[in-house]
Protein backbone atom coordinates (compact mmCIF):
# COMPACT_ATOMS: atom_id res chain seq x y z
CA UNK A 1 0.00 0.00 0.00
CA UNK A 2 1.02 3.59 -0.60
CA UNK A 3 0.50 6.30 2.01
CA UNK A 4 -0.69 9.63 0.60
CA UNK A 5 -2.05 12.86 2.08
CA UNK A 6 -5.07 14.15 0.16
CA UNK A 7 -7.93 16.63 0.47
CA UNK A 8 -10.90 14.61 1.85
CA UNK A 9 -13.24 16.56 -0.44
CA UNK A 10 -11.63 14.87 -3.47
CA UNK A 11 -12.41 11.34 -2.30
CA UNK A 12 -15.21 9.50 -4.10
CA UNK A 13 -17.96 7.49 -2.38
CA UNK A 14 -17.80 3.72 -2.69
CA UNK A 15 -20.80 2.68 -4.83
CA UNK A 16 -20.73 -0.73 -3.14
CA UNK A 17 -20.55 0.57 0.44
CA UNK A 18 -22.17 -2.07 2.73
CA UNK A 19 -23.53 0.74 4.94
CA UNK A 20 -26.71 1.82 3.12
CA UNK A 21 -28.74 3.20 6.04
CA UNK A 22 -28.76 6.93 6.72
CA UNK A 23 -25.90 8.04 8.99
CA UNK A 24 -26.57 9.34 12.50
CA UNK A 25 -25.93 13.11 12.30
CA UNK A 26 -25.09 13.44 16.00
CA UNK A 27 -22.61 10.54 15.86
CA UNK A 28 -20.95 12.09 12.78
CA UNK A 29 -20.67 15.44 14.57
CA UNK A 30 -19.00 13.76 17.53
CA UNK A 31 -16.47 12.05 15.26
CA UNK A 32 -15.78 15.32 13.42
CA UNK A 33 -15.12 17.15 16.68
CA UNK A 34 -12.85 14.29 17.76
CA UNK A 35 -10.91 14.63 14.51
CA UNK A 36 -10.41 18.33 15.18
CA UNK A 37 -8.68 17.37 18.43
CA UNK A 38 -6.67 14.23 17.54
CA UNK A 39 -6.82 14.08 13.72
CA UNK A 40 -7.57 10.94 11.66
CA UNK A 41 -6.24 8.03 13.68
CA UNK A 42 -6.81 5.30 11.07
CA UNK A 43 -6.36 6.27 7.39
CA UNK A 44 -9.21 5.22 5.06
CA UNK A 45 -8.35 2.54 2.48
CA UNK A 46 -8.81 3.78 -1.12
CA UNK A 47 -8.18 2.56 -4.68
CA UNK A 48 -6.96 4.61 -7.62
CA UNK A 49 -9.38 4.73 -10.54
CA UNK A 50 -8.39 4.78 -14.23
CA UNK A 51 -8.72 8.57 -14.38
CA UNK A 52 -6.44 9.05 -11.35
CA UNK A 53 -9.24 9.74 -8.86
CA UNK A 54 -9.45 7.96 -5.51
CA UNK A 55 -12.52 5.92 -4.38
CA UNK A 56 -12.96 4.93 -0.73
CA UNK A 57 -13.09 1.16 -0.24
CA UNK A 58 -13.64 1.28 3.52
CA UNK A 59 -13.53 4.24 5.82
CA UNK A 60 -16.30 6.29 4.12
CA UNK A 61 -17.48 7.66 7.46
CA UNK A 62 -13.98 8.83 8.36
CA UNK A 63 -13.71 10.61 5.03
CA UNK A 64 -17.14 12.20 5.42
CA UNK A 65 -16.42 13.39 8.98
CA UNK A 66 -13.02 14.77 7.93
CA UNK A 67 -14.87 17.05 5.53
CA UNK A 68 -17.22 18.10 8.37
CA UNK A 69 -14.17 18.82 10.54
CA UNK A 70 -12.82 21.06 7.72
CA UNK A 71 -9.52 19.21 7.57
CA UNK A 72 -7.42 20.27 4.57
CA UNK A 73 -5.56 16.97 4.26
CA UNK A 74 -5.89 13.49 5.71
CA UNK A 75 -3.75 10.34 5.29
CA UNK A 76 -5.10 7.56 3.08
CA UNK A 77 -3.70 4.15 2.09
CA UNK A 78 -3.90 3.45 -1.67
CA UNK A 79 -4.16 -0.24 -2.57
CA UNK A 80 -4.53 -2.15 -5.80
CA UNK A 81 -8.11 -2.97 -6.77
CA UNK A 82 -9.32 -6.53 -6.07
CA UNK A 83 -12.94 -7.05 -7.10
CA UNK A 84 -13.12 -10.36 -5.22
CA UNK A 85 -11.90 -9.23 -1.79
CA UNK A 86 -12.72 -5.50 -1.63
CA UNK A 87 -16.43 -6.02 -0.87
CA UNK A 88 -15.66 -8.72 1.68
CA UNK A 89 -13.13 -6.48 3.45
CA UNK A 90 -15.45 -3.46 3.45
CA UNK A 91 -18.22 -5.39 5.21
CA UNK A 92 -16.12 -7.42 7.62
CA UNK A 93 -14.20 -4.31 8.73
CA UNK A 94 -17.45 -2.94 10.15
CA UNK A 95 -18.73 -6.21 11.58
CA UNK A 96 -15.70 -7.42 13.52
CA UNK A 97 -14.85 -4.02 15.03
CA UNK A 98 -15.37 -4.11 18.82
CA UNK A 99 -15.55 -1.18 21.20
CA UNK A 100 -13.40 -1.02 24.32
CA UNK A 101 -14.91 -2.40 27.50
CA UNK A 102 -15.65 0.09 30.27
CA UNK A 103 -12.81 -1.26 32.48
CA UNK A 104 -10.45 -0.79 29.50
CA UNK A 105 -11.75 2.75 29.06
CA UNK A 106 -11.14 3.43 32.75
CA UNK A 107 -7.57 2.07 32.64
CA UNK A 108 -6.90 4.12 29.52
CA UNK A 109 -8.22 7.29 31.17
CA UNK A 110 -6.11 6.61 34.26
CA UNK A 111 -3.01 6.16 32.08
CA UNK A 112 -3.65 9.43 30.25
CA UNK A 113 -4.02 11.22 33.56
CA UNK A 114 -0.93 9.65 35.05
CA UNK A 115 1.49 9.56 32.10
CA UNK A 116 0.31 12.38 29.86
CA UNK A 117 -0.93 14.66 32.66
CA UNK A 118 -4.14 15.29 30.71
CA UNK A 119 -7.13 16.79 32.47
CA UNK A 120 -10.59 15.27 32.51
CA UNK A 121 -11.78 18.14 30.34
CA UNK A 122 -9.19 17.34 27.65
CA UNK A 123 -10.02 13.63 27.75
CA UNK A 124 -13.76 14.32 27.62
CA UNK A 125 -13.31 16.57 24.58
CA UNK A 126 -11.36 13.87 22.73
CA UNK A 127 -13.99 11.23 23.53
CA UNK A 128 -16.90 13.60 22.94
CA UNK A 129 -18.14 12.72 26.40
CA UNK A 130 -19.11 14.84 29.40
CA UNK A 131 -16.68 15.28 32.31
CA UNK A 132 -19.30 13.53 34.44
CA UNK A 133 -18.91 10.42 32.24
CA UNK A 134 -15.15 10.48 32.76
CA UNK A 135 -15.66 10.79 36.51
CA UNK A 136 -18.17 7.97 36.32
CA UNK A 137 -15.48 5.72 34.84
CA UNK A 138 -13.46 6.43 37.97
CA UNK A 139 -16.20 4.70 39.95
CA UNK A 140 -14.82 1.46 38.52
CA UNK A 141 -11.77 2.03 40.71
CA UNK A 142 -14.10 1.45 43.65
CA UNK A 143 -15.25 -1.98 42.46
CA UNK A 144 -13.88 -5.25 43.78
CA UNK A 145 -11.42 -6.55 41.09
CA UNK A 146 -13.35 -9.79 40.34
CA UNK A 147 -16.37 -7.60 39.59
CA UNK A 148 -14.30 -5.70 37.01
CA UNK A 149 -13.37 -9.03 35.44
CA UNK A 150 -17.09 -9.92 35.23
CA UNK A 151 -17.75 -6.64 33.41
CA UNK A 152 -14.89 -7.32 30.99
CA UNK A 153 -16.30 -10.71 29.96
CA UNK A 154 -19.76 -9.23 29.46
CA UNK A 155 -21.44 -10.45 32.64
CA UNK A 156 -21.50 -7.23 34.63
CA UNK A 157 -24.38 -5.42 36.36
CA UNK A 158 -26.62 -2.86 34.71
CA UNK A 159 -25.94 0.85 35.22
CA UNK A 160 -28.18 1.22 38.27
CA UNK A 161 -26.77 -1.84 40.01
CA UNK A 162 -23.20 -0.80 39.21
CA UNK A 163 -23.83 2.63 40.71
CA UNK A 164 -25.14 1.15 43.98
CA UNK A 165 -22.29 -1.36 44.26
CA UNK A 166 -19.59 1.24 43.53
CA UNK A 167 -20.87 3.37 46.41
CA UNK A 168 -20.41 0.56 48.94
CA UNK A 169 -17.10 0.08 50.80
CA UNK A 170 -14.68 -2.38 49.15
CA UNK A 171 -14.65 -4.49 52.31
CA UNK A 172 -18.41 -5.03 52.05
CA UNK A 173 -18.14 -5.83 48.32
CA UNK A 174 -15.40 -8.36 49.07
CA UNK A 175 -17.43 -9.96 51.87
CA UNK A 176 -20.56 -10.49 49.77
CA UNK A 177 -18.46 -11.83 46.85
CA UNK A 178 -16.83 -14.36 49.22
CA UNK A 179 -20.27 -15.42 50.44
CA UNK A 180 -21.59 -15.90 46.90
CA UNK A 181 -18.66 -18.01 45.68
CA UNK A 182 -17.68 -19.87 48.86
CA UNK A 183 -18.46 -23.20 47.16
CA UNK A 184 -17.14 -22.27 43.70
CA UNK A 185 -13.59 -21.42 44.76
CA UNK A 186 -10.96 -24.12 44.54
CA UNK A 187 -9.42 -25.58 47.68
CA UNK A 188 -6.99 -23.12 49.20
CA UNK A 189 -8.34 -20.20 47.14
CA UNK A 190 -9.91 -17.21 48.87
CA UNK A 191 -13.50 -17.12 47.56
CA UNK A 192 -13.34 -13.33 47.68
CA UNK A 193 -10.82 -13.52 44.79
CA UNK A 194 -12.83 -15.94 42.66
CA UNK A 195 -13.02 -15.02 38.96
CA UNK A 196 -15.97 -16.00 36.78
CA UNK A 197 -15.14 -18.73 34.26
CA UNK A 198 -15.38 -17.11 30.83
CA UNK A 199 -15.98 -20.48 29.13
CA UNK A 200 -18.87 -21.37 31.45
CA UNK A 201 -21.99 -19.36 30.47
CA UNK A 202 -23.78 -20.50 33.63
CA UNK A 203 -21.14 -18.96 35.90
CA UNK A 204 -22.94 -15.68 36.57
CA UNK A 205 -23.57 -13.19 39.39
CA UNK A 206 -26.97 -12.34 40.92
CA UNK A 207 -26.28 -8.62 40.60
CA UNK A 208 -29.70 -7.54 41.83
CA UNK A 209 -29.12 -9.45 45.06
CA UNK A 210 -25.67 -7.92 45.43
CA UNK A 211 -27.02 -4.41 44.86
CA UNK A 212 -29.84 -4.90 47.38
CA UNK A 213 -27.38 -6.12 49.99
CA UNK A 214 -25.07 -3.14 49.47
CA UNK A 215 -27.66 -0.43 48.89
CA UNK A 216 -27.46 2.62 51.12
CA UNK A 217 -30.38 5.03 51.35
CA UNK A 218 -29.37 8.43 50.01
CA UNK A 219 -30.86 11.77 50.93
CA UNK A 220 -30.21 14.36 48.24
CA UNK A 221 -29.37 18.03 48.67
CA UNK A 222 -32.03 18.87 46.09
CA UNK A 223 -34.66 17.71 48.63
CA UNK A 224 -33.16 19.75 51.47
CA UNK A 225 -34.97 22.92 52.56
CA UNK A 226 -32.12 24.00 54.84
CA UNK A 227 -29.08 26.00 53.77
CA UNK A 228 -25.36 25.26 54.04
CA UNK A 229 -25.03 26.84 57.49
CA UNK A 230 -27.65 24.48 58.91
CA UNK A 231 -26.02 21.54 57.10
CA UNK A 232 -22.70 22.42 58.73
CA UNK A 233 -24.33 22.83 62.12
CA UNK A 234 -25.73 19.29 61.93
CA UNK A 235 -22.51 17.82 60.55
CA UNK A 236 -23.81 16.96 57.09
CA UNK A 237 -21.05 16.33 54.57
CA UNK A 238 -22.26 16.06 50.97
CA UNK A 239 -20.93 13.46 48.52
CA UNK A 240 -21.27 13.69 44.74
CA UNK A 241 -23.29 11.16 42.77
CA UNK A 242 -21.24 10.99 39.57
CA UNK A 243 -24.05 9.25 37.71
CA UNK A 244 -26.46 12.17 38.10
CA UNK A 245 -27.51 13.67 34.72
CA UNK A 246 -25.92 16.98 33.78
CA UNK A 247 -27.72 19.97 35.25
CA UNK A 248 -29.07 18.15 38.31
CA UNK A 249 -27.76 18.50 41.85
CA UNK A 250 -26.24 15.10 42.62
CA UNK A 251 -25.01 15.83 46.15
CA UNK A 252 -26.25 13.40 48.78
CA UNK A 253 -25.68 12.08 52.29
CA UNK A 254 -26.45 8.72 53.89
CA UNK A 255 -26.68 10.22 57.40
CA UNK A 256 -30.46 10.01 57.83
CA UNK A 257 -30.38 11.22 61.45
CA UNK A 258 -28.57 14.46 60.62
CA UNK A 259 -30.63 15.07 57.45
CA UNK A 260 -33.92 14.59 59.32
CA UNK A 261 -32.79 16.87 62.15
CA UNK A 262 -31.85 19.60 59.66
CA UNK A 263 -35.21 19.27 57.86
CA UNK A 264 -37.06 19.54 61.17
CA UNK A 265 -34.94 22.57 62.03
CA UNK A 266 -36.23 24.24 58.87
CA UNK A 267 -39.83 23.32 59.76
CA UNK A 268 -39.34 24.88 63.20
CA UNK A 269 -37.28 27.95 62.25
CA UNK A 270 -37.64 28.58 58.52
CA UNK A 271 -41.31 27.92 57.79
CA UNK A 272 -42.79 30.65 55.54
CA UNK A 273 -45.32 32.99 57.12
CA UNK A 274 -48.76 31.39 57.16
CA UNK A 275 -47.36 27.88 56.73
CA UNK A 276 -48.66 24.89 58.68
CA UNK A 277 -46.67 21.84 59.76
CA UNK A 278 -48.74 18.73 59.04
CA UNK A 279 -48.54 15.74 61.38
CA UNK A 280 -48.06 12.11 60.35
CA UNK A 281 -51.09 9.83 60.50
CA UNK A 282 -51.11 6.16 61.44
CA UNK A 283 -50.34 5.16 57.84
CA UNK A 284 -47.22 7.32 57.57
CA UNK A 285 -48.77 9.98 55.31
CA UNK A 286 -49.80 13.60 55.92
CA UNK A 287 -52.78 14.14 58.23
CA UNK A 288 -55.10 16.99 57.24
CA UNK A 289 -55.28 19.41 60.22
CA UNK A 290 -58.61 19.97 61.97
CA UNK A 291 -60.43 23.00 60.60
CA UNK A 292 -58.87 22.57 57.15
CA UNK A 293 -59.44 20.60 53.98
CA UNK A 294 -57.09 19.79 51.13
CA UNK A 295 -57.57 21.72 47.92
CA UNK A 296 -57.32 19.99 44.55
CA UNK A 297 -55.18 21.38 41.74
CA UNK A 298 -58.30 22.33 39.78
CA UNK A 299 -59.53 24.70 42.50
CA UNK A 300 -58.70 28.34 41.87
CA UNK A 301 -56.41 29.98 44.50
CA UNK A 302 -58.20 31.86 47.27
CA UNK A 303 -57.02 34.46 49.76
CA UNK A 304 -57.70 32.30 52.80
CA UNK A 305 -55.79 29.22 51.69
CA UNK A 306 -52.48 28.25 53.31
CA UNK A 307 -49.65 25.83 52.55
CA UNK A 308 -49.16 22.70 54.63
CA UNK A 309 -45.67 21.22 54.95
CA UNK A 310 -45.13 17.52 55.68
CA UNK A 311 -41.87 15.67 56.30
CA UNK A 312 -42.11 12.34 54.48
CA UNK A 313 -40.80 9.72 56.95
CA UNK A 314 -39.30 7.60 54.16
CA UNK A 315 -37.64 10.01 51.72
CA UNK A 316 -37.24 12.80 54.36
CA UNK A 317 -38.30 15.26 51.64
CA UNK A 318 -40.70 18.03 52.68
CA UNK A 319 -43.92 17.89 50.68
CA UNK A 320 -46.34 20.77 50.19
CA UNK A 321 -50.16 20.67 50.27
CA UNK A 322 -52.75 23.36 49.55
CA UNK A 323 -55.11 23.78 52.50
CA UNK A 324 -58.28 25.83 52.87
CA UNK A 325 -60.69 26.42 55.77
CA UNK A 326 -63.23 23.64 56.20
CA UNK A 327 -66.66 25.31 56.21
CA UNK A 328 -68.23 22.26 57.86
CA UNK A 329 -65.95 22.56 60.89
CA UNK A 330 -65.53 26.29 61.40
CA UNK A 331 -64.14 27.00 64.85
CA UNK A 332 -62.86 23.45 65.34
CA UNK A 333 -59.88 23.34 67.60
CA UNK A 334 -56.57 22.30 66.10
CA UNK A 335 -55.60 19.16 67.99
CA UNK A 336 -53.19 17.43 65.61
CA UNK A 337 -49.80 16.99 67.36
CA UNK A 338 -47.02 18.85 65.61
CA UNK A 339 -49.30 21.23 63.70
CA UNK A 340 -48.62 24.96 63.96
CA UNK A 341 -51.04 27.63 62.78
CA UNK A 342 -49.93 30.77 60.98
CA UNK A 343 -50.13 32.99 64.06
CA UNK A 344 -48.10 30.60 66.17
CA UNK A 345 -45.36 30.47 63.56
CA UNK A 346 -45.11 34.25 63.45
CA UNK A 347 -45.21 34.82 67.21
CA UNK A 348 -43.03 32.05 68.61
CA UNK A 349 -40.92 29.52 66.71
CA UNK A 350 -42.00 25.93 67.13
CA UNK A 351 -39.77 24.13 69.63
CA UNK A 352 -39.20 20.47 70.30
CA UNK A 353 -42.01 18.35 71.67
CA UNK A 354 -42.01 17.85 75.43
CA UNK A 355 -41.08 14.20 74.97
CA UNK A 356 -39.14 12.91 71.96
CA UNK A 357 -40.02 9.88 69.87
CA UNK A 358 -37.48 7.84 71.85
CA UNK A 359 -39.25 8.83 75.05
CA UNK A 360 -42.62 7.87 73.59
CA UNK A 361 -41.27 4.43 72.71
CA UNK A 362 -39.85 4.03 76.21
CA UNK A 363 -43.26 4.97 77.64
CA UNK A 364 -44.88 2.32 75.46
CA UNK A 365 -42.50 -0.40 76.65
CA UNK A 366 -43.00 0.48 80.31
CA UNK A 367 -46.78 0.70 79.84
CA UNK A 368 -46.80 -2.80 78.31
CA UNK A 369 -44.87 -4.20 81.27
CA UNK A 370 -47.25 -2.53 83.74
CA UNK A 371 -50.33 -3.77 81.85
CA UNK A 372 -49.08 -7.35 81.85
CA UNK A 373 -48.28 -7.16 85.58
CA UNK A 374 -51.81 -5.86 86.23
CA UNK A 375 -53.25 -8.79 84.27
CA UNK A 376 -51.13 -11.20 86.31
CA UNK A 377 -52.50 -9.69 89.51
CA UNK A 378 -56.04 -10.28 88.19
CA UNK A 379 -55.34 -13.87 87.16
CA UNK A 380 -56.92 -15.45 90.28
CA UNK A 381 -59.81 -13.05 90.88
CA UNK A 382 -60.80 -11.54 87.53
CA UNK A 383 -64.51 -11.40 86.86
CA UNK A 384 -65.35 -13.51 83.80
CA UNK A 385 -67.45 -10.74 82.32
CA UNK A 386 -64.49 -8.38 82.64
CA UNK A 387 -62.36 -10.89 80.82
CA UNK A 388 -64.90 -11.27 78.02
CA UNK A 389 -65.04 -7.50 77.61
CA UNK A 390 -61.26 -7.29 77.74
CA UNK A 391 -60.83 -9.90 75.04
CA UNK A 392 -63.33 -8.17 72.79
CA UNK A 393 -61.52 -4.90 73.35
CA UNK A 394 -58.12 -6.44 72.73
CA UNK A 395 -59.16 -7.80 69.38
CA UNK A 396 -60.17 -4.35 68.20
CA UNK A 397 -56.55 -3.26 68.56
CA UNK A 398 -54.46 -1.96 65.72
CA UNK A 399 -52.31 -5.10 65.72
CA UNK A 400 -54.99 -7.65 64.84
CA UNK A 401 -54.60 -10.04 62.67
CA UNK A 402 -52.27 -10.64 65.11
CA UNK A 403 -48.89 -9.18 64.21
CA UNK A 404 -46.24 -9.10 66.92
CA UNK A 405 -47.58 -12.16 68.76
CA UNK A 406 -44.51 -13.51 70.65
CA UNK A 407 -46.18 -16.92 71.10
CA UNK A 408 -46.85 -17.51 67.41
CA UNK A 409 -44.59 -18.18 64.45
CA UNK A 410 -43.17 -21.01 62.39
CA UNK A 411 -43.78 -24.42 64.05
CA UNK A 412 -45.04 -22.70 67.22
CA UNK A 413 -48.48 -22.92 68.77
CA UNK A 414 -49.81 -19.45 69.53
CA UNK A 415 -51.59 -18.61 72.77
CA UNK A 416 -54.86 -18.27 70.81
CA UNK A 417 -54.45 -21.71 69.29
CA UNK A 418 -53.50 -23.22 72.64
CA UNK A 419 -56.55 -21.63 74.26
CA UNK A 420 -59.12 -22.96 71.78
CA UNK A 421 -57.43 -26.38 71.81
CA UNK A 422 -57.71 -26.60 75.61
CA UNK A 423 -61.13 -24.98 75.94
CA UNK A 424 -62.80 -26.76 72.99
CA UNK A 425 -61.13 -30.22 72.81
CA UNK A 426 -64.31 -31.85 71.48
CA UNK A 427 -65.86 -28.75 69.94
CA UNK A 428 -67.74 -27.89 73.14
CA UNK A 429 -66.56 -25.43 75.80
CA UNK A 430 -64.96 -26.91 78.90
CA UNK A 431 -66.54 -24.79 81.62
CA UNK A 432 -63.73 -24.61 84.16
CA UNK A 433 -63.33 -21.03 85.52
CA UNK A 434 -59.64 -21.40 86.36
CA UNK A 435 -58.86 -22.74 82.89
CA UNK A 436 -60.90 -19.96 81.30
CA UNK A 437 -59.15 -17.25 83.29
CA UNK A 438 -55.68 -18.62 82.69
CA UNK A 439 -56.05 -18.91 78.92
CA UNK A 440 -57.89 -15.59 78.64
CA UNK A 441 -55.02 -13.83 80.42
CA UNK A 442 -52.46 -15.62 78.23
CA UNK A 443 -54.28 -14.55 75.04
CA UNK A 444 -54.64 -10.98 76.29
CA UNK A 445 -50.91 -10.79 77.00
CA UNK A 446 -50.07 -12.20 73.56
CA UNK A 447 -52.23 -9.63 71.78
CA UNK A 448 -52.29 -6.38 73.74
CA UNK A 449 -49.26 -4.12 73.95
CA UNK A 450 -48.61 -0.41 74.23
CA UNK A 451 -45.69 -0.29 71.79
CA UNK A 452 -45.39 2.81 69.63
CA UNK A 453 -45.45 0.92 66.33
CA UNK A 454 -47.48 1.37 63.16
CA UNK A 455 -47.65 -2.37 62.47
CA UNK A 456 -47.68 -4.21 65.82
CA UNK A 457 -48.89 -1.69 68.42
CA UNK A 458 -52.43 -2.13 69.78
CA UNK A 459 -53.07 1.60 70.05
CA UNK A 460 -55.54 3.12 72.48
CA UNK A 461 -57.38 -0.17 73.16
CA UNK A 462 -54.40 -1.48 75.14
CA UNK A 463 -54.34 1.72 77.18
CA UNK A 464 -58.03 1.22 78.01
CA UNK A 465 -57.15 -2.29 79.17
CA UNK A 466 -54.70 -0.62 81.52
CA UNK A 467 -57.52 1.52 82.90
CA UNK A 468 -59.74 -1.55 83.27
CA UNK A 469 -57.11 -3.51 85.22
CA UNK A 470 -55.54 -0.54 87.05
CA UNK A 471 -52.16 -0.84 85.30
CA UNK A 472 -51.23 2.64 86.62
CA UNK A 473 -50.63 0.96 89.97
CA UNK A 474 -47.95 -1.18 88.31
CA UNK A 475 -46.09 1.68 86.66
CA UNK A 476 -42.56 2.13 88.09
CA UNK A 477 -40.77 5.31 89.08
CA UNK A 478 -39.85 7.02 85.80
CA UNK A 479 -37.48 9.57 87.29
CA UNK A 480 -34.37 7.92 85.84
CA UNK A 481 -31.72 9.38 83.57
CA UNK A 482 -32.33 7.32 80.41
CA UNK A 483 -35.98 8.42 80.27
CA UNK A 484 -35.53 12.03 81.42
CA UNK A 485 -32.88 12.59 78.73
CA UNK A 486 -35.63 12.17 76.12
CA UNK A 487 -37.29 15.38 77.38
CA UNK A 488 -36.64 18.67 75.62
CA UNK A 489 -35.54 21.58 77.80
CA UNK A 490 -39.08 23.08 77.84
CA UNK A 491 -40.46 19.63 78.68
CA UNK A 492 -38.13 18.98 81.65
CA UNK A 493 -38.73 22.55 82.85
CA UNK A 494 -42.49 21.91 82.98
CA UNK A 495 -41.89 18.62 84.77
CA UNK A 496 -39.80 20.04 87.62
CA UNK A 497 -42.01 23.12 87.99
CA UNK A 498 -45.00 20.80 88.42
CA UNK A 499 -43.12 19.30 91.37
CA UNK A 500 -42.61 22.75 92.91
CA UNK A 501 -38.92 22.93 91.94
CA UNK A 502 -37.19 25.93 90.44
CA UNK A 503 -35.98 25.79 86.84
CA UNK A 504 -32.23 25.41 86.33
CA UNK A 505 -29.98 26.75 83.58
CA UNK A 506 -29.35 23.37 81.94
CA UNK A 507 -31.39 20.25 81.28
CA UNK A 508 -28.77 18.11 83.03
CA UNK A 509 -29.14 20.11 86.26
CA UNK A 510 -32.93 19.85 86.10
CA UNK A 511 -32.82 16.09 85.56
CA UNK A 512 -30.54 15.68 88.55
CA UNK A 513 -32.80 17.90 90.68
CA UNK A 514 -35.91 15.89 89.75
CA UNK A 515 -34.23 12.53 90.46
CA UNK A 516 -32.99 13.79 93.83
CA UNK A 517 -36.42 15.22 94.67
CA UNK A 518 -38.26 11.99 93.88
CA UNK A 519 -35.78 9.78 95.73
CA UNK A 520 -37.25 6.38 96.61
CA UNK A 521 -40.83 7.43 95.88
CA UNK A 522 -42.55 7.14 92.50
CA UNK A 523 -42.80 9.85 89.85
CA UNK A 524 -44.92 9.38 86.76
CA UNK A 525 -45.48 12.11 84.12
CA UNK A 526 -49.16 12.45 83.12
CA UNK A 527 -48.37 11.61 79.50
CA UNK A 528 -46.98 8.21 80.53
CA UNK A 529 -49.97 6.92 82.49
CA UNK A 530 -53.08 5.10 81.36
CA UNK A 531 -55.80 7.41 82.73
CA UNK A 532 -55.64 9.99 79.91
CA UNK A 533 -56.73 7.26 77.46
CA UNK A 534 -60.35 7.69 78.59
CA UNK A 535 -60.68 11.25 77.26
CA UNK A 536 -58.86 10.33 74.05
CA UNK A 537 -61.24 7.38 73.57
CA UNK A 538 -64.30 9.57 74.08
CA UNK A 539 -62.97 12.10 71.60
CA UNK A 540 -62.30 9.38 69.01
CA UNK A 541 -65.85 8.01 69.43
CA UNK A 542 -67.29 11.52 69.01
CA UNK A 543 -65.28 12.01 65.80
CA UNK A 544 -66.52 8.66 64.47
CA UNK A 545 -70.13 9.61 65.26
CA UNK A 546 -69.70 13.00 63.57
CA UNK A 547 -68.23 11.38 60.47
CA UNK A 548 -71.06 8.85 60.33
CA UNK A 549 -73.63 11.65 60.59
CA UNK A 550 -71.96 13.56 57.77
CA UNK A 551 -71.98 10.45 55.56
CA UNK A 552 -75.66 9.90 56.27
CA UNK A 553 -76.39 13.55 55.43
CA UNK A 554 -74.49 13.23 52.15
CA UNK A 555 -76.49 10.11 51.24
CA UNK A 556 -79.79 11.97 51.93
CA UNK A 557 -78.69 14.89 49.76
CA UNK A 558 -77.78 12.51 46.90
CA UNK A 559 -81.21 10.85 47.11
CA UNK A 560 -82.94 14.25 47.13
CA UNK A 561 -80.81 15.36 44.19
CA UNK A 562 -81.93 12.35 42.16
CA UNK A 563 -85.59 13.22 42.80
CA UNK A 564 -85.02 16.88 41.88
CA UNK A 565 -83.35 15.83 38.62
CA UNK A 566 -86.35 13.69 37.69
CA UNK A 567 -88.78 16.55 38.51
CA UNK A 568 -86.68 19.00 36.53
CA UNK A 569 -86.60 16.73 33.49
CA UNK A 570 -90.39 16.52 33.51
CA UNK A 571 -90.76 20.31 33.95
CA UNK A 572 -88.43 21.30 31.09
CA UNK A 573 -90.18 22.98 28.12
CA UNK A 574 -90.48 20.92 24.94
CA UNK A 575 -89.73 23.75 22.52
CA UNK A 576 -89.10 21.57 19.49
CA UNK A 577 -89.92 17.91 19.18
CA UNK A 578 -88.15 15.42 16.95
CA UNK A 579 -90.73 15.76 14.18
CA UNK A 580 -90.42 19.56 14.07
CA UNK A 581 -86.64 19.36 14.04
CA UNK A 582 -86.71 16.85 11.26
CA UNK A 583 -89.00 19.04 9.22
CA UNK A 584 -87.07 22.27 9.68
CA UNK A 585 -83.59 20.68 9.62
CA UNK A 586 -82.70 22.74 12.70
CA UNK A 587 -82.02 21.66 16.29
CA UNK A 588 -83.25 23.88 19.14
CA UNK A 589 -80.53 23.99 21.81
CA UNK A 590 -82.69 25.86 24.35
CA UNK A 591 -83.82 22.72 26.23
CA UNK A 592 -80.20 21.55 26.68
CA UNK A 593 -79.25 24.96 28.07
CA UNK A 594 -82.04 24.59 30.60
CA UNK A 595 -80.81 21.12 31.63
CA UNK A 596 -77.27 22.41 32.05
CA UNK A 597 -78.34 25.40 34.13
CA UNK A 598 -80.55 23.25 36.38
CA UNK A 599 -77.86 20.66 37.12
CA UNK A 600 -75.25 23.37 37.63
CA UNK A 601 -77.43 25.06 40.26
CA UNK A 602 -78.18 21.77 42.01
CA UNK A 603 -74.62 20.38 42.11
CA UNK A 604 -72.38 23.44 42.43
CA UNK A 605 -73.21 26.36 44.69
CA UNK A 606 -69.73 27.72 45.52
CA UNK A 607 -67.78 29.74 42.89
CA UNK A 608 -64.89 27.26 42.87
CA UNK A 609 -67.30 24.36 42.46
CA UNK A 610 -69.07 26.14 39.58
CA UNK A 611 -65.73 26.72 37.85
CA UNK A 612 -64.84 23.04 38.26
CA UNK A 613 -68.31 21.99 36.99
CA UNK A 614 -68.09 24.21 33.89
CA UNK A 615 -64.56 22.98 33.03
CA UNK A 616 -65.40 19.28 33.41
CA UNK A 617 -69.07 18.83 32.35
CA UNK A 618 -70.55 19.24 28.89
CA UNK A 619 -74.17 18.48 27.85
CA UNK A 620 -74.68 17.08 24.35
CA UNK A 621 -77.88 16.24 22.49
CA UNK A 622 -77.83 12.68 21.14
CA UNK A 623 -79.65 12.39 17.79
From TrEMBL:
Domain ParB-like N-terminal, first and last residues per copy: 4-95
Lineage: Bacteria, Pseudomonadati, Pseudomonadota, Alphaproteobacteria, Acetobacterales
One Pfam family it belongs to: ParB_N
Any GO BP: chromosome segregation
Record's protein name: ParB/RepB/Spo0J family partition protein
PANTHER family: CHROMOSOME-PARTITIONING PROTEIN PARB-RELATED
Biased composition regions of type Acidic residues, renumbered to the chain: 554-566
Entry's Gene Ontology molecular function annotations: DNA binding
Family according to the record: Belongs to the ParB family.
GO cellular component, one term: chromosome
Amino acid sequence: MELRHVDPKTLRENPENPRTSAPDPSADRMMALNMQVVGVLQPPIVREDADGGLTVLWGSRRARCAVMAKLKQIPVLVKAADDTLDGLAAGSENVIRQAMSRPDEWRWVERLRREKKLTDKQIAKALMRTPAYIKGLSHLARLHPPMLHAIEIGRGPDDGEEQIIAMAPLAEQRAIWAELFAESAEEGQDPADYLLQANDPDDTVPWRHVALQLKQTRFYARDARFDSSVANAYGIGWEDDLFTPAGEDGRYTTDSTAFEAAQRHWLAQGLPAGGIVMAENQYGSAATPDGYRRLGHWIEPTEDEVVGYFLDPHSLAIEEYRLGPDATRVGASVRVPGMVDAGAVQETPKGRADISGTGEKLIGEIRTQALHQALDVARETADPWDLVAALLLAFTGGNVSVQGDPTGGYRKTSARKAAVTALFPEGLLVREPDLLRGHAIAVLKSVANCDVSLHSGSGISAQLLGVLFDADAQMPNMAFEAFLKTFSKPGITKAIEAEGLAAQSTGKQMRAALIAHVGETRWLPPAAGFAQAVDAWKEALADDASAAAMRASDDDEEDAGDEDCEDAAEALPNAAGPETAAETGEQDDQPMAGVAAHFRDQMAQEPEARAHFDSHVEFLRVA
